Amino acid sequence: MYQIISWIIRYIFIILIYYFIYSIIKLIYLDIDAINRQGKRGTDNPYLKLVNRKDRLDFNVHEFYDLYESNTIGRGKGNDIQISDKYISTNHAQISMDEGAYFLEDLGSVNGTYLNSTKIEDVVELENGDRIGLGQVEFLFVKEVD
């Protein structure tokens, strides 16, 4: 009787180990897939990369947003980057380029715009690796240096 229980426990333990290995391989695959999608953006423009896990958000949001000379962010349909987050204002923020540098400006949003966890009050210059917080989402500003 003990030998049968011992064999059952062994097989259950082996199955758990294989499931754990499968989970790790799946996570590695998803990370590699995200890196490959970044390479397929097709442009060298600076961009915003989503930091949040998409599956934890209750609305659709893209993984990457290319930035151009002027970019508005908000819930409204007229924005260049439209995010349907209930904590983002209709016209929430703007990212614009001036003399080769990108600047972030809050457009009077109710919940504010955050740069590296600090609420911005004025126009601020963005640096590579800055984190931009809007509502429930956080983006990484990426500007590849030539």
From TrEMBL:
Keyword Lipoprotein among UniProt keywords: no
Membrane in keyword set: yes
Stretches assigned to the FHA domain: 71-120
Entry's transmembrane regions: 7-29
Keywords annotated in UniProt: Membrane, Transmembrane, Transmembrane helix
Pfam families: FHA
CDD domains membership: FHA
InterPro entries according to UniProt: Cell_Proc_Reg/RNA_Proc, FHA_dom, SMAD_FHA_dom_sf
Gene3D superfamilies the UniProt entry points to: 2.60.200.20
PANTHER family: NUCLEAR INHIBITOR OF PROTEIN PHOSPHATASE-1
Protein name per Swiss-Prot or TrEMBL: FHA domain protein
